[in-house]
Amino acid sequence: MNQLYALLKSGELRFIDLAEEVVEPTDKLFLKAMGDFINDETVQIPFDGNYSVRENENEVLYLDFELPAVFGDIPDNQEGITTLDVENDDIKSLIWFHNGSFLFQIFSSSNLLENKYVIKFFQEEHTFNRMKDKAFIINNKIQAIHKDDKLLFKSFPNASKIFDLSEHMVEATTEEVHAFGNNDIVNVDVNWLTVNANNKTRRLIKMITESRTLETFMGMSAMKRTRIAKSVNVDISIYDGRLVLPSSLGKLNKILEFLNEDVYRGLITERIYRTNSKRGE
Asked: CA torsion 227→232→233→236, rounded to 10°?
């Protein structure tokens, strides 16, 4: 039975209607990814914010976690879930359901073939031509599993791209806030930041530091940085190779949300939203 779904950035679910002949291969792909992610020998470690899975170690972190109510339609009320509109729906994660387990694979614009230059062999013409069909890539890895009322993951920043886990996030310490402010690619009043950073600021700094999205963003070309920020109406200023952070908590947290990839543009209304909410800016 086809059990492929998409979790949208709005928090809604979509059903992905697969042709019968690709259901079994898709199931095998996800089950292989599940086996690579966790097995009978895997050590499950409660997440407390102070432990990271060691590379090449057979470990996963977990949180006691209740799925949002929309997941209650899987698998028994499949017909009640709207079918995916690949042109207009903004996908956050692909989901494969198997024997009570939800397997999550983070989805990004790079999964969409329309954003890649793909050539395909056309049998009738005996030539290769550009593929322009609406299509997306399913990767061979997953980033999280939900089973037995637990969310299993190896990377907290990755799991946070699927669900809002901010209440589970350990905040950056004063020393970590200070270190963030003294980063060579940041221009900020460190004393002001250390004194005024609230709980949200500290959580965002902790996640940005662990995921290194600041370094990734600053490593982009100036044109790309400007284009990405403008697409979600975030004002950024870069001076002498350093990102200028304002001494205003509201403006600062908005930029930090952007760096933590918590802001997106609705495809239909083009309004700006924060991930896991429908509150417009």
From this structure: -60
pLDDT digits (tens, 9 = 90+) for 199-224: 889 989 998 998 899 999 999 999 99
Contact of 41 with 58, CB cutoff 8 Å:
yes
pLDDT tens, position by position, 32-91: 999 999 999 999 999 976 567 877 789 999 999 999 999 999 998 888 999 999 888 999
pLDDT digits (tens, 9 = 90+) for 160-178: 999 988 778 778 899 999 9
Is residue 207 within 8 A of residue 201, CB to CB? The reply is no
Answer whether 71's CB lies under 8 Å from 13's CB.
Answer: yes
- Token pair listed for 163: 């669900």
Q: Assess contact for 156 and 149: CB atoms under 8 A.
A: no
Q: Which residue has the tokens 């291969």?
A: 25
Q: Is 196 helix (H, G, I), strand (E, B) or coil?
A: helix
What DSSP state is assigned to residue 68? Answer: P
What gap in Å lies between CA 53 and CA 33, rounded to an integer? Answer: 18
Give the pairing of strands 59-64 and 150-153. Answer: antiparallel
Whole-angstrom distance, CA of residue 254 vs CA of residue 236? 10
Return d(Cα 173, Cα 11) in angstroms, integer: 31
Strands (E), 11-106: 13-15, 43-46, 59-64, 91-98, 101-106
Residue pLDDT, tens place only, 119-155: 766 777 777 777 777 788 999 999 999 999 999 999 9
DSSP single-letter state for residue 83: B
Ramachandran quadrant class, 137 (left: phi over 0; alpha: psi -120 to 50; beta: rest): beta
pTM (2 d.p.): 0.64
Q: Tokens in use for 274? A: 């924060």
